[in-house]
Amino acid sequence: MRSILEELFYGNICPNTDCRSHDKETKQLMGYIADHHDNLLSTLNDQQKELLEKFDDCYNELTDINEREIFSYAFKLGMRIAIRACVRGQRKRQGDRRLV
Q1: Are residues 100 and 84 in contact, defined by beta-carbon separation less than 8 angstroms?
Q2: Which tens digit of pLDDT belongs to each residue from 50-92?
Q3: What SS3 state is found at 100?
Q4: Which pairs count as long-range contacts for 47-52, CB under 8 Å and 24+ apart, including other chains?
Q5: Which of 13, 63, 77, 80 has CA atoms 20 to 30 A from the CA of 44?
Q6: Sign of CA dihedral 48, 54, 58, 60
Q7: To the nearest 10°, the Cα dihedral for 79, 82, 84, 89?
Q8: 3-state helix, strand, coil in the chain (%, to 5)
Q9: How far is Cα 30 from Cα 8, in angstroms, rounded to an integer?
Q10: pTM to 2 decimals?
């Protein structure tokens, strides 16, 4: 069995898709968004549809960038918390009362 870091490296863990909420409220909201998008699309002429497609592409790219930045920040924060907990535990075992 591979470690979690190996699984991440080999692409078997995909945080940006694995952590998506699949609760009823989220699914319902995603359905509303899709319905409204389709309704809007049906009212547009070809030029407007092209403009909406460009807007969607830019919005999706921005969302990807934001998700990547949030993941990176959260991963670093999680590692700092884990390191701090390990150092505190080690110092406690050694009788050092200082907090890190």
Answers
A1: yes
A2: 999 999 999 999 999 998 899 889 989 999 999 988 887 777 7
A3: coil
A4: none
A5: 63
A6: positive
A7: -160
A8: 75, 0, 25
A9: 27
A10: 0.64
CA distance between the termini of the chain: 34
Residue 98: DSSP 8-state: -
Nearest to 37 by CA among 56, 20, 23, 64: 56
H, E, C per residue of 38-79: HHHHHCCCHHHHHHHHHHHHHHHHHHHHHHHHHHHHHHHHHH
Angle between the N-to-C axes of helices 46-93 and 24-42, in degrees from 0 to 180, rounded to the nearest 10: 160
Q: Collapsing DSSP states into helix, strand and coil, what is residue 14?
A: coil
Contact of 41 with 51, CB cutoff 8 Å:
no
Backbone angles phi, psi at 94, to 5 degrees: -90, 0
- How many CB atoms lie under 10 A from the CB of residue 9? 11
Give the Cα separation of 37 and 58 in Å (integer): 15
